[in-house]
Write a structure and sequence with these properties.
Strand order of the largest sheet: 1-2-8-5-3
Helix content: 40-55%
Number of strands: 12
Structural class: alpha+beta
Distance between the termini: 50 Å
Shape: globular
Length: 427
Amino acid sequence: MVLRTPLEGLADVARDAGGEIVRLDVGPFRPYLLSHPDHLQHALRGDWTSYLRKGMFWKPVERLLGDSVIADGPGWAASRKVLQPLFTARYVASLTADMAATIDEGLDELTPDVPFDAMDTMSRIATRAVISVLFGDRISPREAEVLGPAYTTANTSMGFRIALPFVPERVPLPGDKRFMGARQVIDDVIYPLIRQARKERSDGPDIISALVRARDGEGRELTDRKLRDDLASIYGAATETTAVALTWLWPMLHEHPDVAARLYEEIDEVTGDGPVGADTLPRLRYLTMVLRETMRLYPAGWAMPRLVTRTHELGGVTIKAGSQVLISPYVTHRLDGFWPDPLTFDPERFAPEREDRRHRYAYLPFGAGPHLCLGQHLFFIEAPLLIAGLLKRFRPELVTEGPFPVQPAGTLRSRKKIEMILRPVTT
C-alpha cells in the first residue's frame, strides 16, 4: 500500500498504529515514521540537533537547493540570521499595499469563461507578488516568466528520486533530464543577479542585496553557490506554498458549497465596494480558517525527513545513530486522536475558541522549531489577498472532476490537472 499510494499508505499505517513509532520496510532501507505530536516535538524542538536535515531522503532536494537556508549545511545559521528580519510579521505587513497592487495586476489579466490550469495560474500570480516585494526590480518580468515554470518542472520531475532515494545519481531515472534542464534555467536566471548585486553593493532591503552583504560565522562573504542555493530556496518556499494551497482550495470549495457560500458572503461583507488591503485582512476571519484547513489536508511541505545523529530512546523505541526518520505533516494532520473525523474538510476546526485545545505539534504546515518556515507571515498576507481579490470578481467552477489523488513530488500536488473556469460576479 505504501509503495502503491505512498502518502495515503503512510497515513493509514500511522492511524493503525495510533501514532506510535513505526519501522517502515521500504526497499533496501527501513526508515522510522514519526507521527505523534509528542515525538515531533522532541525531534523538531526538544532534541532537534540530533535530527538533521541530511541523509538519503534529502538528496533529491539537495540536487535543487544545495546548502541552503532550509538545510543543515555549514551556512544555515548565518543565512537564517540575515533573512529573519526580512520575514518578521511587522516587516511583511509593511509590504501589504505593494503586494495587493501586484496581485491586482495579475488578477486583471485573468480571462473569464475560459478554462485554465489552476496550478499554473496561481503560481504565476504568486510568483509576481513575491518577486515584487522580496526581490524588488532585480528580477525582470521576462526572467519571472521562465523562473516559475522552471521551478515547477524541477519539483514535479523529482518524483522518482523521492520515491527511490537510495538509487545513486549516476543511475538515470525518469524525470532526470527534465530536472537538469529546469535547474539550468534557474541557474541562468539567478547567477547573473548575484554578479550584478556584488557589483552594486546596495544597502537596499531586497533579499539579494541582504545576502550579498551577509557574512558567515568566520566573517567571510557567502559564496556565489551559497547565495544561489539560498535564493532558490526562498523563492520556492515563498511561491510554492501559496500556489499549492490555492490550487487545492478550489476542489475543496467545489465539494463544500456551504463553505464556499459563507466565504463569499464574508468577503463581500468585509470588502464591500473597496479594495482588498491591509485594513480588510484582519477581518477576513473565516477565510483564514478555510486556508488553515486546506493546509491541514494538503500541506505543501508534505515531508520533513531527518537523519538521527545519536542513539537514543523515543516512545519506547531505540533509534540508532544513522537511522533515517520520516516526519510528514500530511500524516500527522490525519491522526484520529488529534483530529476528529480527520478526512473531512471542516474549517470550524480553526475557530479561535478551539485553538487552545490542540497539541502544538499536531498542526505543522510550516514546520516547527528552529527550522520553522520564514515565509509563514508572508503566506497569510499573500494568500488571503489573492483569494479575496479573485472572489470579489469571479465565482470559480471546476472543469475537471475529482477525485484528485496526491502526488508526493517536491511539494504536494495533484496527480491530475485541476482545471477551472471563472464566472464574473454579477451585481
